[in-house]
Amino acid sequence: MKNPFLGTGVALVTPFRKQETIDFSRLEKLIDDIIDGGADYIVALGTTSEAATMTETERHALQDFIVECVGNRCPVMLGLGGNNTLAVRDAIANTNFDGISGILSVAPYYNKPNQRGLAQHFKQVAEASPVPVIIYNVPGRTGVNISAETTLLLARECPNIVGIKEASGNLAQVMQIIQGRPEGFSVISGDDSLTLPMVLLGAQGVISVMANAIPKEMSAMVKFGLKGDVKKALPLHYRLLPLMNAIFEEGNPAGIKALLEVQGKIAGHLRLPLVRVSKPLYNKISSLYDEFNG
């Protein structure tokens, strides 16, 4: 299948009101800002969205709203994964894929499958999905790493698996995948701060948290990196780096929501068990944003 996910994708946050209901009006404005800032696609209902704390009704409403707001302006990728293979297959079967160009499916978490189990899981996801699949490797959250060997096996054997979001932080593993992948298989950075190094090594872009707040500069850095224009990409990387590091100091999406609140784009409310960043970190993020604009 054709892979529409190149360049800068944005792992979209979900603005909440103080009473924890979804703030759809702020979300619409945020989507407009992100697309106007040059983002290439939107990721709905990923980890950054806090989808794990939403009801099924809320998730469906959020998906429909995002698809409607985005329209034909860019592709939408839908987060759709879990640690119960049969349940993921059922969820895919019951999903409305109108306006959805692909799914992002995280490695099964908590039950810690071995590599054979991971491969079988993703083969079944790919078989069930009517749209392209990007697998998501984030060992820091799932407790298991999708090895380069398993990724390459899936890339070769499942035409519907068109890429991987790599957030292992292991550049040796990333290079092994890039070197051995079949034509058309994308490697996508899952770490904002490693995006430029990965792109220069041969990755196809990023699914970014930072680009919720600063889409213009993040998208520009990726575009320059993809063209091999290090002279223009590197200053943007180092300009963004302090903020990129700060927003992850106390976890995601607390940090990015703090930055968006500093910008006046959303309120920084989160749903338990997540809580706001500490006051010292909030002040640090605010100060770094001032320096970024200075």
Can you put this structure into words, describing what you see?
With 294 residues, the protein is of the alpha/beta class. It has a single domain (7-228), classed as Alpha-Beta Barrel (TIM Barrel), CATH 3.20.20.70. It contains twelve helices and eight strands. It has an eight-stranded parallel β-barrel with strand order 1-2-3-4-5-6-7-8, surrounded by seven helices. Strand 3 (76-79), helix 3 and strand 4 form a beta-alpha-beta unit. Helix 3 runs parallel beside helix 4 and helix 4 (115-128) packs parallel to helix 6 (148-157). The longest helix has 17 residues, at 230-246. The termini are far apart. The mean pLDDT is 97.
Question: Number of helical segments?
Answer: 12
Q: Biggest β-sheet: count, sense, barrel?
A: 8 strands, parallel, barrel
How do the strands of the widest beta sheet line up side by side? 1-2-3-4-5-6-7-8
**Proportion of strand residues:** 5-15%
Rounded to an integer in angstroms, the radius of gyration calculated over CA atoms is: 18 Å
Note the quaternary state here: single chain
The helix fraction, in percent, is 40-55%
- What's the rounded overall pLDDT mean? 97
> Could you give the count of β-strands?
8
Summarize the structure.
With 294 residues, the chain is an alpha/beta fold. It is built from twelve helices and eight strands. It has a single domain, classed as Alpha-Beta Barrel (TIM Barrel).
Q: Can you give keywords for this protein?
A:
single chain; 294 residues; TIM Barrel; 12 helices; 8 strands; 46% helix
